[in-house]
Design brief:
Layout: E1 2-5, E2 12-15, E3 19-21, E4 24-26, H1 32-36, E5 46-52, E6 58-64, E7 72-78, E8 80-87, E9 98-104, E10 110-113, E11 117-123, E12 128-134, E13 143-145, H2 166-169, H3 176-182
Antiparallel strand pairs: 1-2, 2-10, 3-4, 5-12, 6-11, 6-13, 7-10, 7-12, 8-9, 8-11
C-alpha cells in the first residue's frame, strides 16, 4: 500500500499496490500494521455501502460529535466520485481547509478521513457505489453536518449537484468564530431524518 498526505492534516490517500498475474489482481485495501506507521490506529466497528443511481448525487458534509467521533476509510467500488474531507478541528493547522480526491472502481484508491473532519462526495458517474470502513457504530444523536456550499469552506466542486437529501441541503453555515472558540460542539446535533449516514 502507498499512503500519501493531502493538504489537510491526517487526511490520507491510500493507493493499493496490486499483484497482477493471468488470473487478474490481488491487493490489500486495509492493513492495520501498515496504516499504524502513518499514524492511523483505527479499529473497524462497522462497514457500510452507499449506492447512488444518478450522476450528480451529493452526500455530505457529514460527521459525528463526541463521544461518537468517527474515522473512516472510503473506497469507490463502482463508478467515480469526487470525494471531499473538510477539517473542522479548531486546534488544527489546517482548520477549515478541504482536500478532495477522485475515487473510482478502476483506481481502487481510498481516502482516510480522521475524526473531526466532515466527509462528503459528488458522483461523477451513474450507478455509483462506495464502501466505508468506520471506526465506531452510527449514533444518530451525534450526527451533524455542514453545508456543501459553505463559503467559509469554499469547496471547489466539479459541478452543482443534481440530487441531494433535504437534510443535507438544510445543514447550517459554519459559525467560524464559534467553531474556533468552542470546537465541534458548536455544530450542535442535527436531525438525521430518513437520510441516515452517508
Amino acid at each position: 500500500m502507498i499512503v500519501r498526505e493531502t493538504t489537510v492534516l491526517g487526511v490520507l490517500v491510500i493507493e493499493p499496490e496490486p499483484s497482477i498475474d493471468d488470473r487478474g489482481l490481488f491487493a490489500r485495501t486495509f492493513c492495520m500494521a501498515e496504516l499504524a506507521t502513518h499514524g492511523i490506529s483505527m479499529q473497524i466497528a462497522q462497514a457500510s455501502t452507499s449506492y447512488n443511481e444518478c450522476r450528480g448525487t451529493l452526500r455530505g458534509m457529514h460527521l459525528q460529535l463526541s463521544p461518537h467521533e468517527e474515522a473512516k476509510i472510503v473506497r469507490c467500488t463502482r463508478g467515480v466520485v469526487f470525494d471531499v474531507a473538510v477539517d473542522l478541528r479548531a486546534d488544527s493547522a489546517t482548520f477549515l481547509r478541504w482536500a478532495a480526491v477522485e475515487l473510482s472502481a478502476e483506481t481502487r484508491r481510498e481516502l482516510f478521513v480522521p475524526t473531526g473532519c466532515a466527509h462528503g462526495f459528488l458522483t461523477l458517474d451513474e450507478a455509483t457505489e462506495l464502501e466505508y470502513l468506520i471506526s465506531i457504530p452510527y449514533a444518530p444523536e451525534s450526527a451533524v453536518g455542514v453545508r456543501w456550499d459553505d463559503p467559509a469552506i469554499g469547496i471547489d466542486w466539479p459541478f452543482a449537484p443534481q440530487v441531494m437529501s433535504d437534510r443535507d441541503r438544510s445543514f447550517p453555515l459554519v459559525d467560524v468564530d464559534r467553531l474556533r472558540s468552542t470546537g465541534l460542539a458548536a455544530l450542535g446535533a442535527s436531525s438525521v431524518g430518513g437520510a441516515g449516514r452517508g
